[in-house]
Amino acid sequence: MRSSAKLCAMNQDIKQCFSSAGLNLNTSTGEVSNTNQKLRLSPVNSRVLNVLLKNAEKAVSRQQLFDQVWPNQVISDDALTRSISDLRSQLKNMTSTEPLIETIPKVGYRWMPAIESNHIKAATSAESKASFWSQNLKPMLLALAILLMLTWGLLGWLFFLSKPSATPIIILPTQHNHTINATNQNTDVTTCLKQAVMVQDNMQYLSAFALESHIGSPFPYYSHEFGVRWFIESQIIQKQDKNHLLLNLIDARTAMVIYSQQFSFKPNKEFKTHCEKFIAFVAEL
């Protein structure tokens, strides 16, 4: 029976790749392969092979093998003998090189073929990086790209929804305090106001039908039902033989006049310029 007196950093020992005797030997996974075949060794046999390969062409004592393969354990000689026998039997069918493992009487064992190069380790590292990329980073980046596309789409949709729509207003019929050409003047003022509203991108007026469909005070009914913000009230006033056009901006929720302008005009003169200036001011509010 043999006992181990030394503790070996096993994780470092088994994470090795070797190329020898035409074989690719990965003792971290137990895989052994050539151009045509592949086999997997048991964990114990992989650790034994790892110690031999790390000391290729050098004699490795049985005690060294016990210390590094079975640290702090009591193992019989038969366990090591069976492991060496298994390795010889499994590897013999994959290479023509003989012998692979030499028995050195009263000493131990030696891996005979030389270690050809460490290109397997480099290749394995490259494969590991490629595998990490394909299995981890690539899906993560793809998911991130999809998330960004969805985010931009959501932001675009929110921007579209938050984009201010045209503000509904109501143009009330023109009032007047005299009868001279009242009908024509009333039509002219209302028409000019509507035309001025139509050229504004952020304003629209409620139809006369919608206005006439409600009985009673329009405040604050149209504000709640149609989102109307402004009422525009117009009056034609005659003072001291002069005609005046009064335009009032009324808050739909409070029915209070918040802005007013008055213009003088001559009979039958068009109101277009005055109406356009007034509506342009309202559009900026």
Walk me through this protein's architecture.
- The chain is an alpha+beta fold and 285 residues long.
- The chain has helices at 10-14, 43-54, 62-69, 77-92, 119-162, 182-198, 208-212, 221-226, 272-283, and strands at residues 2-3, 17-20, 23-26, 31-33, 38-40, 60-61, 74-75, 101-104, 108-111, 115-117, 167-171, 175-176, 203-205, 230-239, 242-251, 257-265.
- The protein folds into 2 domains: 2-120, Arc Repressor Mutant, subunit A (Orthogonal Bundle); 167-283, Rossmann fold, CATH 3.40.50.10070.
- Helices cover 44% and strands 25% of the residues.
- The termini are far apart.
- Mean pLDDT is 80; it is low at 1-14 and 119-123.
